[in-house]
Amino acid sequence: MIRRPEVRVINPDGQQLGIQPIRQAIALAQEFGLDLVEINPKADPPVCRIMDFGKFKYEQKKQAAVAKKRQRIIEIKEVKMRPKTDTHDFDFKIKHVRRFLEEGNKAKLTIRFKGREMAHPDMAAKLLDKVVEACRDIAVVEQTYRMEGRTMTMILAPIPGRVPTAPATRTAKTSDAPEAENAAAEPTSSDAPPAAEPS
User: Fold this and answer.
1) Which domains does the chain have, with CATH numbers?
2) Contact 108, 154 (CB under 8 A)
3) Which residues of the chain register pLDDT less than 50?
């Protein structure tokens, strides 16, 4: 229910009809066989448009569904390695890292140390440098390598603006137990109109 005494009216074709008393605006909408819908209640006076309210709500719902479908969930995919990873295993891991990045996700490299390996963190650092070099064309370093207990970690992210080759899904998981991270928020409508005046 529109409670203001005057409103700014827009006709079905989008033309401004000026400020009119609310009763006159409602009568005009009825002449068109349509509804008077308040589309900008914060304006002074509020802006109303003569339209089919049912169709308007349907279009809003359809646009929201399209926006939601286009949303992506960015995940952090973890790839685990050892300081002495051999060439064959390294190449295999790189394929996974590149695939995750090309899909638009982030890649967390985790190197776990055992026994005396803790005395040579430089080996792990060199290995991570090789990963960065192998992914330089599609990734940037978001978090440089750092020690966390008996592990060294680093995070790579896709180059900003790069179009992913495949969409991420909310249920996608890997055996390396990635940490999920949201990239986009649910869309909200700032112009959701109140109930329309019946025609």
Assistant:
1) 6-70 (3.10.20.80), 75-180 (3.30.110.10)
2) yes
3) 167-199
